[in-house]
Write a structure and sequence with these properties.
By secondary structure, the protein is of the alpha/beta class. It is globular, with a radius of gyration of 16 Å. The model has no long low-confidence stretch (mean pLDDT about 95).
Length: about 190
């Protein structure tokens, strides 16, 4: 069974994010047995989920593991619940349907240049992807930095309390020094 590492980027990010590039480079140099995938996620949450479903359908006979950052961590939580995959959550969004209310209105994606609206429909799509109770917390490792200027790390400490958690002082939303964890991430996932 082939191994696949699926990377899910955050809100208004892209496959060119630093963490995705670091993962791709590490796999290229050290793990030729793993295929790395990092799709550009669409703007709307329902479409994001359709992309994820299509990847799991296309590679249904493969061993798919997931790294999700920020909003990608929120999506990866749903992946773990639906598909039973092992996941790494990096400074995950816990309640993005509350957090993103400050962005209500017309948006321009900085990488794809698509315009879309964050409105009640957008929030409902996000809420449909929420996971109340994790069925398999042992399949989830959460990486947090207390200096995250975007998300309150304490929300993740509560939501993922039964999971493996690494919480560092300082840092920021991008998770400073992420590359230090990559070898252990691969070991945990595979």
């Amino acid at each position: 069974m082939a191994k696949i590492l699926l990377s899910l980027h955050g809100f208004h990010s892209s496959p060119e994010s630093l963490k995705a590039r670091q993962l791709a480079e590490y796999i290229d140099n050290h793990q030729s047995d793993i295929t790395f995938l990092c799709p550009q996620l669409p703007c709307l949450p329902g479409q994001m989920w359709k992309i994820i479903e299509s990847i799991f359908e296309k590679y249904k006979h493969h061993d798919i593991r997931v790294v999700g950052s920020s909003l990608g961590g929120y999506l990866a939580t749903k992946v773990s619940q639906v598909y039973g995959s092992k996941v790494i959550l990096v400074n995950p969004a816990v309640m993005p349907y509350r957090l993103l209310q400050i962005y209500a209105g017309k948006q321009l994606h900085p990488y794809t240049h698509e315009t879309y609206h964050i409105d009640e429909n957008y929030m409902q799509q996000l809420k449909r992807l929420d996971v109340d109770v994790l069925r398999s917390p042992n399949k989830c490792w959460v990486l947090l930095q207390e200096g995250d200027e975007v998300l309150d790390y304490q929300q993740a400490m509560v939501k993922y309390q039964d999971c493996k958690i690494t919480c560092e002082k300082d840092g920021d939303h991008s998770f400073v020094g992420f590359e230090r964890f990559i070898p252990d991430i691969i070991k945990f996932l595979f």
